[in-house]
Design goal:
With 211 residues, this protein is an alpha/beta fold. It has helices spanning 15-26, 47-53, 71-84, 101-106, 127-134, 169-192; strands at residues 4-10, 33-40, 58-60, 89-92, 111-115, 138-145, 155-162, 196-199, 202-205. Helix content is 34%, strand content 24%.
């Protein structure tokens, strides 16, 4: 069985990046997938230190220096790096920008993202704050395929997390993050095993999923 080559894109700490790397090294993705390269768009982001610690190549392409460019032209810089490393699946692990239609097409739609809420509810950058302000009792996290809209593509897998009356953004975020680190590798495993069939907005999973 061939090893799936993953390219990761991040803007910040990269804890989901590290969770995926560890799953490739010693977890459910061992002998199934390997992270070939990390692309980071923010100088000083800790995700690059994580890449160094795991001997994974990384490229810094600072989006702040290309604000004058259309998104497609900026994305071409990332595409070149990811293609040079033979990446077949792209994972957005805390990437704080939208990717272009061209980017998605180049990788045949094989682009995944994780969001710290149960989509389609609480999209955007402040999910935990919005969850607490709204007063819902259940939140969670979502892995989905990416399209050109924010937090919108077909949903692969979700996990519910309770919201407590005493929660803050930090306490809630910590509990949700624990599940993010589990369901993103699981979604990649399902992809590796060819168990995901996309039919419009519906992602059909063959077999039983155990988390």
């Amino acid at each position: 069985m061939s090893i799936l080559k993953i390219g990761a894109i991040a803007s910040g700490s990269g804890s989901n990046f590290e969770a995926i790397v560890k799953a490739c090294e010693e977890g459910i993705l061992k002998n199934k997938a390997r992270v070939e390269v990390l692309v980071c768009n923010k100088a000083g982001a800790f995700c690059m230190e994580r890449a160094k610690n795991h001997n994974i190549p990384f490229e810094l392409i600072e989006s702040d220096k290309f604000l004058h460019l259309p998104r497609e032209e900026f994305d071409e810089r990332m595409i070149k790096v990811l293609k040079n490393h033979g990446c077949e699946l792209i994972v957005l692990v805390g990437y704080m920008r939208l990717v272009s239609k061209k980017f998605i097409q180049v990788f045949n739609g094989n682009v995944m993202n994780i969001h710290p809420a149960l989509l389609p509810s609480f999209k955007g950058l402040h999910a935990h704050r919005d969850v607490l302000e709204y007063g819902v009792k259940i939140t969670g996290c979502t892995v989905h395929f990416v399209d050109v809209e924010s937090d919108h593509g077909p949903i692969i897998i979700q996990k519910c997390v309770p919201v407590y009356d005493t929660d803050t953004e930090d306490t809630l975020g910590t509990r949700v993050l624990e599940w993010e680190h589990k369901i993103f590798p699981k979604a990649i495993e399902l992809f590796c095993d060819n168990r995901l069939k996309v039919k419009g907005r519906l992602v059909v999973i063959e077999g039983i999923v155990n988390l």
